[in-house]
Design goal:
globular, metal-binding, 343 residues, binds N-oxalylglycine, metal ion binding, Fe2OG dioxygenase domain-containing protein, 7 helices, alpha+beta, 8-stranded mixed sheet, 24% helix, Jelly Rolls, binds nickel (II) ion
């Protein structure tokens, strides 16, 4: 019998509740469709009804995705000592960490984070009257060969795809296609994350990632053939598994889009269940605004009939609060968008 870590037993909230596999899955959208009107409509419906969809014919070379997955496998196959040489710390939150060795023991995974714009400016602390900025930079792992160059190439493709998707989402909200551009340009705080979920001896007690919403604008996720991502279906609040589709990317709307759209599109809960036999790899790209962005409902989308539902918040402060809380101050509650909800 495996010894079960008491941390997993206490956290009832963190245990997988039953999920369903069959039934309606998230929509699959073909981005090569000729009719832009049709595409915009499909994306708008998916954002409204699911908050999640998959895209195919997205233009990201399959070969690059495979090279990323391969590099990720090689990186994580190293010893923990080797991986910790590119480990993150309080000052530089990019790089490697395993959840077992930080205070966040709940998630059954290890991670490697890499910012899209290196270096990128962020506030030093989440405190409102502290105006100091710092720079986040990426580590340069020596193994596997050309790891950094491969990630950089991948990030470039993820940015192109995100901008394309943000244009389609803007159009679906009746906005100018470039409406969101000003929030990202140059200073975006986006990053790519390599996730490794090792086989878990007690999958009924643990989750790879507990239920959560993504805080940024969009997430573009590549998952391998093992599967395990589950999405809270808006129609009935059931957990539904996202079936791995080769070469498809899974897209979800984050909290920032929920606020910009004044709740027209909602950020949806999701989680990852673990597997007792197979390890799993996934690669999300988080499209995040520039630190100076004041996130609030867009003027065009509020009116007397539909007043603003949120007060403005500063993205950089929000981000630093969330990042810091992962490994510094476990007792403080993470900032959430509902903290900015207007009565
Ligand atoms: C995340 C996430 C899903 C996955 O990292 O925010 O939801 O399948 N990951 O790894
Ligand atoms: Ni997520």
């Amino acid at each position: 019998m495996e010894e079960v870590d008491p941390a997993f037993i206490q956290e009832a909230e963190h245990r997988p509740k039953p999920s369903i596999m069959e039934g309606d899955g998230i929509p699959i959208i073909d981005l090569s469709r000729i009719s832009i009107e049709g595409l915009v409509k499909e994306i708008g419906n998916a954002c409204k009804e699911w908050g999640f969809f998959q895209v195919i014919n997205h233009g990201v070379p399959f070969n690059l995705r495979e090279r990323m997955m391969e590099a990720s496998k090689m990186f994580f196959a190293q010893s923990v000592e080797e991986k910790r040489k590119v480990g993150r710390n309080d000052k530089y939150p990019m790089g490697y960490y395993d959840t077992e060795h930080t205070k966040n023991v709940r998630d059954w995974k290890e991670v490697f984070d890499f910012v899209a714009k290196d270096p990128v400016s962020v506030p030093v602390t989440p405190l409102e009257n502290d105006h100091r900025l710092t720079l986040w930079t990426n580590p340069s792992p020596q193994y596997p060969p050309a790891f950094r160059a491969t990630i950089e190439e991948y990030v470039e493709e993820m940015e192109k795809l995100s901008y394309k998707l943000m244009e389609l989402i803007a159009l679906s909200l009746g906005l100018h296609p470039k409406r969101f551009e000003e929030f990202f340009k140059k200073e975006e705080t986006s990053f790519v994350r390599l996730n490794h979920y090792p086989p878990c001896p007690y999958p009924h007690l643990a989750l790879g990632v507990g239920r959560h919403k993504d805080p940024g604008a969009l997430t573009i996720l590549a998952q391998d053939e093992v599967g395990g991502l589950e999405v809270k279906r808006k129609a009935d609040q059931e957990w539904v598994r996202v079936k791995p589709t080769p070469d498809a990317y899974i897209i979800n709307v984050g909290d920032a889009i929920q606020v910009w759209s004044n709740d027209a599109y909602e950020s949806v809960e999701h989680r990852v269940v673990v597997n007792s036999e197979k390890e799993r790899f996934s690669i999300p790209f988080f499209l995040f605004p520039a630190h100076c962005t004041e996130v609030k409902p867009l003027e065009e989308l509020v009116s007397e009939q539909n007043p603003s539902k949120y007060k403005a918040y500063n993205w950089g402060k929000f981000l630093v609060n969330r990042t810091g809380s992962n490994f510094e101050k476990q007792n403080a509650e993470n900032l959430q968008i509902y903290h900015y909800k207007l009565p």
